[in-house]
Amino acid sequence: MMLQIKSLSKSFGNQRVISDMDFTIKKGEVVAVIGPSGSGKSTFLKTINQLVKPDFGIMHLNDKEYDMAKIKESEATDLRKKIGMVFQNFGLFSHLDVLGNITLGLEKVHGFKKEAAISREKELIEVVGLSGKEQSFPNQLSGGQQQRVGIARAMASNPDLILFDEPTSALDPELVGEVLSVIKTLAKAGNTMIIVTHEMKFAKETADKIVFMENGEIIMEDSPEVLFSEKAPERIMTTRKTGG
Ligand code: ADP
Ligand code: MG
């Protein structure tokens, strides 16, 4: 297992958002997380890289054990270096151009020398199909292009695991395809990824495993073949149709 989480729990005030949840993903695997709005999907992702501290949870990442509720900030920083994240609203630095957005973390967090950071940026910009856009600022790019920068940035340091939180839900429909296609390419290249998405066709085609969350729990997890079959429980079928 690349990542194994046991007994993950998180409440906000007296609202239980994640309830004693177990989760595993193997190296090279792609797991799609689906489920209705408010079921705890984003919170789940954020506990993995300590953007949200859970109340309880034991995590193994590449054989290293973490007590998720008690992790120190220095250790959390270390953990975040191994985990890339792509946000719904891109999360780019508006005052930096594409080059700056991708190289900043490499230099400041990962200790790359400027030349090495730029050379890595060049590789990534090609992977996400944005050659020639290095000097553009986020507000000069379409949403689809901005999200591709977000993906390049998340991939920059070659993380062990990449988390995607509804990467296309802020996009105009005509721009969704270009972003899903980049994610699909990265999936085929063997990257380990957890993708929260409402794009059911994409999940079915791309994921090795689908996890269905409801009320902070995993209600069902299985291969796309099983989870998208007519045998799936009624409420999963409904979520699939409405997109949660
Ligand atoms: P999903 O991503 O599945 O839509 P979330 O993880 O965003 O669900 O949210 C699950 C529940 O937790 C929601 O009821 C939401 O309002 C609540 N919640 C999320 N983040 C916070 C927070 N920082 N403070 C208080 N409540 C929160
Ligand atoms: Mg969410």
UniProtKB/TrEMBL annotation:
PROSITE patterns: ABC_TRANSPORTER_1, ABC_TRANSPORTER_2. SMART domains: AAA. It comes from the Bacteria. It holds the Pfam family ABC_tran. It is a peripheral membrane protein. SUPFAM superfamilies: P-loop containing nucleoside triphosphate hydrolases. Gene3D superfamilies: P-loop containing nucleotide triphosphate hydrolases. It is found in: Cell membrane. The keyword Cell membrane applies. Keywords: Amino-acid transport, ATP-binding, Cell membrane, Membrane, Nucleotide-binding, Transport. Residues 3-240 form the ABC transporter domain. Belongs to the ABC transporter superfamily. This is ABC-type polar amino acid transport system ATPase subunit. It comes from Acetoanaerobium pronyense.
